[in-house]
Specification:
Strand content of chain B: under 5%
Structural class of chain B: mainly alpha
Shape of chain B: globular
Order of helices and strands of chain A: EHHHHHHHHHHHHHE
CATH architecture of chain B: Orthogonal Bundle
Oligomer: heterodimer
Radius of gyration of chain B: 20 Å
Largest interface: A-B, 51 and 49 residues
Number of helices of chain A: 13
Structural class of chain A: mainly alpha
Distance between the termini of chain B: 59 Å
Helix content of chain B: over 70%
Number of helices of chain B: 14
Distance between the termini of chain A: 5 Å
Order of helices and strands of chain B: HHHHHHHHHHHHHH
Number of domains of chain B: 1
Amino acid sequence: MRLEPIANPSLARSLGFPALAICVTVLVASGLAAIAGGNPLQTLGLIVQGAAGSKFALLETLNRATPLIFTGLAIAVAFRAKLWNIGAEAQLYGGAIVTVILGTSALSNFGGAALPLIALGAMLAGAVVLLVPVMLKTRYGVDEVVTTLLLNFIMLLLVSYLLEGPMKDPMGMGWPKSAPLDKDLRLPRIVAGLRLHWGFGLALISAALIWFLQTRTTLGYEMRAVGFNPQAARFAGIPLNRVLVKTALLSGGLAALAGFSEVAGLKGHLSLDLSPGFGYTGIIVAMLALLHPLGVVISAIFVAGIFVGADSMSRAAQVPTYIADMLLATALLLMVLAIGLTKYRMVRG
Amino acid sequence: MNALFDILLTASFWAAAVRIASPLIFATMGELICERAGVLNLGIEGIMVIGAFSGWMAVYLGMGLWGGVFVAMLAGMLFGLLHATLTVPFGLSQHVVGLGITLLATSTSYFAYRLILPEVTSPPKIEPFQAVEVPYLVDIPLLGPALFAQTALTYAAFAVVALTVLILYRTPLGLAIRAAGESPNAVAAQGLSVTRLRMGAVIVGSGLMAVGGAFLTLSAFSSFFFEMVNGRGWICIALVVFGAWRPGKALLGALLFAGFDALQIRLQQTPIGQAVPYQVFLMAPYFLSILALILMSRRAQVPSALMVPFNKGER
């Protein structure tokens, strides 16, 4: 058995396998629900209903999708250039820390410029957090997978220290959380009265901008070239390390915006449970979107829907909410396989 | 400074270092075998979780302790088989598949835990492995209690290192595994199957990672907690690099690392330690791993075909 590349995969092939992957995921979901003693159809129905069955549910899903669009974009940008950024979680918290520092300062005197300034500051923090492992990679050849992963743990401990020490909310009744942001420095609601903040709008704009960058600019071309074939890119005169550093700045900045939008748009303060693994889930979001920036929006809403739906389902049926994580991991593996099968076929010999 | 010497001269410190090293030794050997065959296994973190969970659950449901170890190993090998199938014959991205396996194995453990124990707030305890003292040897000062008053699973960890060295460097099979990670074309030219060698290495290696996880629940602690593996898998990947892909050096790295870990726990209790935020101590292992990577990355002998999928007939 060996793999043979397919020069021009047919439309049926390039759509059929991903569609099959989704079907198998649904089958696995039904099986898991049955194992848990639930009625498969009813369980799946409850998940869909919990994710999109009412205006409230739908807004909750879009709210949950917002940080996932940011982290998904961060991963998609990095993976496209074969920069294995597994540290979006750390970059998210970097952004969140700066958001709280600036958002509780005297910055509100700047009026309308304050929020953009905070967002920029947050992006800078996220970029720096990713720049460290990337510099270690370009300078010393240290693999960035392990260093970005380890930085997630270091960052979480840093947040824990800050929340118990310098950034502790004096009015927090002992809970490890930061002081709340200035009222004027919160992201406003998109429609008054509906629980959806402008972080979602910012996420959509970011996706469009990244799409433009990747398809219409030289930098976007260079990033794809470096990811596709580093040797050829170097041969073509593309400065490999410089492109990697630029990619890192962009990717880290995007992940940090997730932290900014969660603090300034949703929570209003920093706590240790700000992110239930948005950085890691971003990998699933990006892979399901085939690393396409506009696809990230759709897949983030889909992934958020599964989480929100599974939460609401497990309150009604006796199926543990961890079914969502299992489903998404299955979907990720099957989707990677499906993409592989659109490009290669198995032949004997 | 005195406090430091006091710690270094207590037998319990050295015993703790060896105990902390044990799960890392199993998992590091597992990862090392995978990587020597040419496959990076980022499923390690999740496979340690499923090992910790399944081994503990098997014992909780009435199996013996060694039965639990066996169940953990089987569970690890199952996820190893999945990883190997996707990365070896299909040649898919080892990064993405590995992370996917970690997510899948972790969520499967948590799902099953909630399924079997729906309403439990504090996890039930089991009777873990007890320390077995080796007669006479245990009386050696410092070294005796550290090396010869451990649980059977710790002795097994050292045996696994010896076995890994023996197989990798003294048998034709070991030569073939190492060659699969260095120049797979040469292996194929000998009429051997690179696919089978690599898949076998990943499956066996994953089994060892799961036993490393099971050490946490069956020997170190007596319950299963969420997030109890806490990045140990990623640290083991750093240890493989630190050990320059050699079992003996990796063992040394694991012991050194565990020594620092045991030291930081004890330094927290000293007057100087209490003046420093405890998070600084908890960060130390992760910083240490990154430092080790920086120091070793320059001169390390990376297996040349690591992360390069092999496709017969393709040059």
